[in-house]
Amino acid sequence: MSERDQPSPEEALPRPSSQSALRRRLGMLKWLAPGMLVLLVVGYELLISRTVHDMLGPVPHYALDILVYGTVGPVLIFWLLHFLSRWLDERETSELQATILAQARERVRAHQELNDSTLQSLFATSLFLNAVEANLRDLPPEARTQLHAANQSLDRVIRQLREHLLQHRG
Predict the structure, then answer these.
(1) pLDDT tens-digit profile of 37-66?
(2) What is the maximum span of the chain, computed from C-alpha positions, in angstroms?
(3) What are the extents of the domains in the chain?
């Protein structure tokens, strides 16, 4: 497979679904928060507010109204913004993880290409040394000994590198 046939790391990864999850959560909150607020106001007005007004009079009734309506709205907004902030943090974290994963996959691909190229070069050099050793019988004995030692050393390095790569690929 050529480099043009291989997808880029960004294309190889599925798009994170955090944006669609965020949209679903916001859509749910869009209906849930007002509904909760309506239930709270109706329950408060029909049950608590009327009872306080009848039993304690208008001053405690207005004080309770100010307290309830002055805290419910800000607390609800704080709660919504808090969860929105958490969801945005989750999304950023997911995107960062996807970027790191894509970079790691690219490094692995580059290392595999380098290892394959190194093995091929070492093997080609070994073949060349074998051919030289077999065809040049008129070399001095010490040159043949050095050539043979270099060839054995190269073969040993190829075997060790191949074993190492096979252990770490599987």
Answers:
(1) 888 889 888 888 889 999 999 999 999 889
(2) 122
(3) 16-169
